[in-house]
Amino acid sequence: MKVLSRIYTALIFIFLYAPILILIVFSFNDTKSRNVWSGFTLEWYQKLFQDSQIMDALKNTLIVAVVSALAATLIGTMAAVGIQALGKRARGIVMTFTNIPMVNPEIVTGVSLMLLFVLGFTLIGKTGVQMGLGLPTLILAHITFNIPYVILSVLPKLRQMNQHTYEAALDLGCHPLPAFFKVVLPEIMPGVMTGLLMAFTLSIDDFVISYFCSGPTSQTLPVLIYSMTRRQVNPKINALSALLFVTVLALLLIVNIRQLKDQDKAAKRQKKRA
User: CA nearest 191: which of 82, 81, 269, 64?
Assistant: First the structure.
């Protein structure tokens, strides 16, 4: 049974990652052929960084990812602290609404956000100010779908910490805000950092919501790749997709390694207490 399970697992991984491996290999192909290997070259990576359209999309992607991840982490952390302070029934109700954006189809979220922005622009347009979809709407959309993931990253750390430590700080004369930064925040920082990295990764990787909420001058890399593949699959797309895959993989490895370290630290603390 063990041999069969290993073969089954290997087949699953081959099925999942063989296409990506082929894409990465052909990003170094010396010709534009998609089925014949003609030799090794870095030409497509060189042309990739010389393409102004791709560089603009990269700049937009990084701006949106960094700003939305920081904003979502700040809002999500405050929301997690507030949810943890609620009663059991109220907390369950709030968490139900928090989980809806994650299980809701992305296309529904993208279309609804687009309609919200368009309606807002229509109302603002009546005052004489003309606005449209662009980087601000894209950042707001990414903040919206990133917040639930940050909440789910921070809440477990709040549950694990000793609540009496914060109360002791208040009893010793510390004001609530300094007590939070000196007592609570260091305890939940691993969850905050995990949420930040998760939000950054999801923002870089998002296509559906970005497609509906971006303007003509604020395209992100996933949207640009989609528009380029509709015409012809250029080898530069292979190189760009390979770099995106490596970046997202590195971030996910950092998140997972950090979670494993946090679990080890928590296990050691429990052993000491026991």
Answer: 81
**DSSP characters over 34-82:** SS----B--HHHHHHHH-HHHHHHHHHHHHHHHHHHHHHHHHHHHHHHH
pTM (two decimals): 0.80
Do 153 and 198 touch, CB atoms closer than 8 A?
yes
**What DSSP string describes 198-237?**
HHHHHHHH--HHHHHH--TT---HHHHHHHHHTT---HHH
Cα three-residue angle 33-35-37, rounded to 5 degrees: 75
Q: 166, 223 in Cβ contact below 8 A?
A: no
pLDDT one digit per residue (tens) for the chain, 274 residues: 678 888 888 888 888 888 888 888 888 887 777 777 778 888 888 888 888 888 888 888 889 999 999 999 999 999 998 888 888 888 888 888 888 888 888 888 888 988 888 888 777 777 766 677 888 889 999 999 899 999 998 998 888 887 777 778 777 777 878 888 888 888 888 888 888 988 988 898 888 888 888 877 788 888 888 887 776 667 788 888 888 888 878 877 887 787 777 777 767 766 776 5
Are the C-beta atoms of residues 192 and 154 closer than 8 Å to each other? yes
- What is the spatial distance between Cα 105 and Cα 101, in angstroms, rounded to a whole number? 8
